[in-house]
Amino acid sequence: MRSFSYARPATLAEACRSAEHTRFLAGGTNLIDLMKSDVERPAHVVDIKSLPMHHIVDRPDGGLRLGALVTNADTAAHPLVTDRYPLLASAILAGASPQIRNMATNGGNLNQRTRCHYFYDPAMACNKRSPDTGCAARGGRNRIMAVLGTSDACIATFPSDMCMALAALNATVNLHGPQGERTVSLRDYHCLPGDTPWRDNILQPGEIVTAIDLAPAPFGPHHTYLKIRDRLSFAFAIVSVAVGLQMKEGRIMRGSIALGGVATKPWCVPEAEALLDGRAPSHSLFRDVAERLLHGAVADRDNAAKIRLTPRVIERALWQAASGTPQSQMDKTIR
Ligand SMILES: Cc1cc2nc3c(=O)[nH]c(=O)nc-3n(C[C@H](O)[C@H](O)[C@H](O)COP(=O)(O)OP(=O)(O)OC[C@H]3O[C@@H](n4cnc5c(N)ncnc54)[C@H](O)[C@@H]3O)c2cc1C
Ligand code: SF4
After folding, report:
1. pLDDT in tens, 16-38
2. Is 135 close to ligand 2, i.e. is its CB under 6 Å away?
3. Cβ(128) to ligand 2 under 6 A?
């Protein structure tokens, strides 16, 4: 048993006073598990649940602001989200279980850690958990690991479903820290592992995610979140695809795509998205887009199947979005 201090500040300024070895506690569905497994060993736990970040509100530009402490369940069920951002509601509902979504928060979802088995086992070498100790997943059991954005130091997949929809929606993350406030595009929020795989995202010490902003919704019915997983009840993605298309008279005016389950961060390739501009949906177009998205994919011992499976999931998702028949997360049959 490791001891740690616990505080529940009432203001952002108090919460952000940076201290070494501090972790913020939101819903606790990831952090507490990691502390129990001795993977996370914070000296200070700062419980942020009393901070004023519990609301979903309209933005003056017609978009929406999602408070970081709104639960995933409340976000997915909120009428402004289901009406204007069904892609986001769908991706959230594809993740975890109802019980987890009732506890998990939007800020926590962004900052959840990888599900790499070796990361969760302090007896194994893991550069992300313990810098410069090696990577047991390389050449190990790595069927669930990433094929895109990997490095010699780490091949761990970024596990969120919600973040794939946020990437496709080009969301913006609002941060508050000891140096003040700043915003960053969700697409730039998570880091590639490179040779610093312990760094999951661009948060500085003491910085808190306060809210996520969505621009006015552009896709109408032309969106989908398609998730392939080992079991339908709840499981992390083997491959997932979030797609939104702006369509006019049968043509795609602009497309937005994010891949999950296959990369070390939400995977977006602007050159692949640009291939869709002004084009009519077709098998050859969607194949080209999939090929461009997978460019540079590298398999390790057990995960080559992801490289074969992903283009098919991308193509199916693009057809679902183009025809305005998004994947249902209730009846999970893939059509
Ligand atoms: C059994 C199970 C199945 C799951 N399945 C899925 C799935 O299929 N898809 C999926 O996407 N997710 C899944 N999850 C993960 C789940 O979505 C995350 O655990 C959850 O979103 C984390 O949110 P939280 O509020 O509980 O975060 P916490 O556990 O409280 O925190 C997680 C991390 O985020 C940091 N943090 C939290 N809030 C903030 C903030 N506002 N600013 C800065 N840092 C912050 C914490 O310090 C901590 O490092 C699953 C989890 C479990 C336990
Ligand atoms: S893939 Fe990353 S998280 Fe997994 S063992 Fe290697 S360094 Fe650790």
Report:
1. 986 789 999 999 999 999 999 99
2. yes
3. yes
